[in-house]
């Protein structure tokens, strides 16, 4: 009763913004629109016009330092005045600490200003002004990035080693986000064999129906790693850590069991699996690993001390693992409010606050939004990235 009455009332206060996966004037079947380009080569890129902007690329990499401030003002001002609904805006910068930080501050703020129109604004970094940025453009200027907003992602300067193995393992892949990730991995060009690992109590019917191999086991058991290796019996080219649980309580009321269960599933089991696979040569050279973290692990959250500690630990583990293994690419994805069966059960006021007050796009993300980011990270030249899929939720970097 409360949900049926309260949800429509809250919707009247701040109407939701249904995410459009296509820029407003994009025709069905068209991959993406040619971008409106702002760069140093344009003869008059800094004049205001009435021309509508659906897709914009602002390349600051060849702008002289003394000209950067004015260039950013004029290009951002023109975009803000003329961008259409569900527009896509990508800024490009090098890794120069001063210049990239200036652009980052603008991007994070502009993403919050334009979010109510369904627009996303992101920043791509490259090593030099001449470094390729095509992978960044293909993702951030397309409908794949509908719920990625206010983020900073670096494309590596050289092509990373690609794994020869076409096998990908997705833990927690029987349902929800994990199942959508497995589906996306199978649709991509890198993996033809998908193994879904999940708890024995899980319903594997959807995964089996999609043609995935299934492995039923508790990922926290001491022999979980060996059982996975035995079942596959070949090096793997991809691993997505999507298995995770919540056991929410404030720290004052949290039991030791709730603390341990959350840390064991979300972090300790991952560290053990990764370590065992690496020691046993189960990772193919160039293997792509993605850990599904959380915005709670980035900014913390009331009632989720255990969950936040585990997800923040996962981000730290990915950084440590990259430092020890130069031939493997480990990235993390931090989802925000993603619509799943779990979030559908939350009180309406919680959903309202998370999506309409804290999230500039004023919408829930979908499982496919997380899967699209995973796809970008495993198929492209990315290593050591942490990408939030949260609509630009107001939590900082």
From TrEMBL:
SUPFAM superfamilies: NAD(P)-binding Rossmann-fold domains. It comes from the Eukaryota. InterPro entries: KR_dom, NAD(P)-bd_dom_sf, SDR_fam. Pfam families: adh_short. Residues 166-331 form the Ketoreductase domain. One of its GO terms (molecular function) is oxidoreductase activity, acting on the CH-OH group of donors, NAD or NADP as acceptor. SMART domains: PKS_KR (SM00822). Belongs to the short-chain dehydrogenases/reductases (SDR) family. PANTHER family: 3-OXOACYL-[ACYL-CARRIER-PROTEIN] REDUCTASE [NADH] (PTHR42760:SF78), SHORT-CHAIN DEHYDROGENASES/REDUCTASES FAMILY MEMBER (PTHR42760). This is Ketoreductase domain-containing protein.
């Amino acid at each position: 009763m409360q949900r049926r009455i309260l949800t429509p009332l809250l919707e009247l206060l701040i109407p939701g913004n249904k995410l459009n996966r296509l820029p407003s004037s994009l025709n069905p079947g068209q991959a993406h629109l040619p971008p409106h380009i702002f760069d140093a080569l344009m003869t008059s890129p800094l004049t205001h016009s009435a021309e509508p902007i659906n897709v914009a690329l602002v390349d600051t990499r060849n702008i002289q330092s003394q000209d950067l401030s004015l260039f950013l003002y004029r290009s951002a001002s023109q975009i803000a005045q003329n961008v259409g609904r569900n527009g896509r805006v990508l800024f490009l910068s090098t890794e120069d600490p001063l210049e990239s930080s200036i652009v980052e501050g603008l991007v994070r703020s502009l993403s919050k200003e334009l979010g109510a129109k369904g627009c996303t604004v992101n920043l791509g970094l490259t090593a030099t002004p001449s470094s390729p940025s095509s992978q960044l453009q293909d993702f951030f200027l397309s409908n794949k990035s509908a719920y990625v907003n206010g983020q900073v992602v670096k494309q590596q300067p050289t092509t990373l080693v690609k794994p020869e193995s076409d096998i990908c393992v997705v833990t927690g892949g029987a349902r929800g986000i994990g199942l959508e990730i497995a589906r996306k991995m199978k649709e991509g060009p890198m993996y033809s064999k998908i193994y879904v690992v999940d708890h024995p109590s899980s319903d594997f019917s959807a995964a089996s129906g999609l043609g995935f191999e299934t492995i039923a086991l508790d990922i926290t058991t001491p022999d979980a790693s060996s059982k996975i290796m035995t079942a596959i019996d070949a090096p793997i080219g991809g691993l997505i850590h999507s298995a995770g649980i919540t056991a929410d309580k404030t720290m004052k009321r949290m039991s030791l069991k709730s603390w341990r269960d959350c840390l064991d599933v979300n972090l300790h089991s991952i560290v053990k699996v990764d370590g065992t696979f690496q020691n046993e040569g189960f990772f193919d050279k160039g293997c792509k690993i993605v850990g599904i973290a959380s915005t709670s692990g980035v900014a913390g959250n009331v009632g989720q001390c255990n969950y936040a500690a585990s997800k923040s630990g996962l981000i730290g583990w990915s950084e440590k693992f990259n430092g020890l293994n130069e031939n493997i690419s480990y990235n993390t994805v931090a989802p925000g409010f993603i619509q799943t069966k779990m979030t559908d059960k939350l009180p309406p006021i919680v959903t309202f606050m998370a999506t309409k007050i804290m999230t500039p796009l004023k919408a829930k993300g979908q499982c496919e939004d997380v899967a699209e980011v995973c796809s970008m990270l495993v198929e492209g030249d990315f290593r050591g990235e942490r990408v939030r899929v949260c609509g630009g939720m107001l939590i900082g970097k």
